[in-house]
Backbone:
């Protein structure tokens, strides 16, 4: 019986020794990577790997003219989710044949190729008219801006005001290229005659 256990005991001891050597090698490798001067350190999860203050970014899809301008108080990039977050966000959309559209919010996030901008809290979209008249002002607590398609939309409560007319509803799609705005549901309209607005 004792003779039968000896080979097993030897195998167990050999396996334990191999596991200890493997663990020691892994620990030593990690320590060498950490102590190596100039070695790249991974960013901690949830923390930005770079930040810019009072920045301006101009995008142009083609030619020399600017397509839109993005400004903000602070820009932070989070590598763990590959997302860029902007505080005190402001975007100016340029157009050769229409007045510039301006949209702002407390915060905004964008994806890698900047084809989507998610705007949060105190979102204000301003679209001036070309000629006499009042500009269109749209407010909500969230909007999705698709700059390549020139579309702004939301599924949240929204208010649109132009002069003496105020529209309230749930959900909205605004197309800057076509100069259209559509509220999706629960639409309520308020119109005040100009003489009442002056009182």
Residues:
């Amino acid at each position: 019986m004792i003779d039968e256990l000896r080979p097993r005991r030897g195998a167990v001891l050999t396996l334990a020794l191999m596991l200890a050597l493997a663990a020691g090698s892994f620990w030593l490798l990690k320590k060498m990577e950490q102590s190596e001067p100039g070695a790249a350190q991974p960013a901690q999860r949830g923390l930005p790997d770079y930040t810019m203050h009072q920045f301006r970014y101009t995008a142009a899809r083609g030619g020399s003219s600017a397509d839109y301008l993005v400004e903000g108080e602070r820009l932070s990039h989070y590598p763990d989710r590959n997302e860029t977050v902007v505080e005190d966000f402001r975007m100016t959309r340029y157009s050769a044949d229409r007045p510039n559209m301006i949209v702002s919010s407390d915060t905004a996030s964008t994806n890698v190729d900047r084809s989507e901008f998610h705007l949060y809290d105190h979102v204000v979209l301003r679209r001036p008219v070309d000629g006499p008249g009042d500009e269109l002002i749209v407010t909500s607590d969230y909007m999705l801006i698709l700059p390549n398609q020139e579309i702004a939309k939301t599924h949240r409560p929204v208010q649109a005001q132009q002069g003496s007319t105020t529209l309230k509803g749930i959900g909205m799609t605004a197309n800057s290229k076509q100069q259209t705005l559509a509220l999706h549901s629960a639409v309520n309209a308020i119109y005040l005659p100009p003489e009442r607005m002056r009182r």
Remarks:
- The first strand starts at residue 50 and ends at 59.
- Helices lie at 2-35, 194-197.
- Residues 2-35 form the longest helix (34 residues).
- Confidence is low (pLDDT under 50) at residues 35-43.
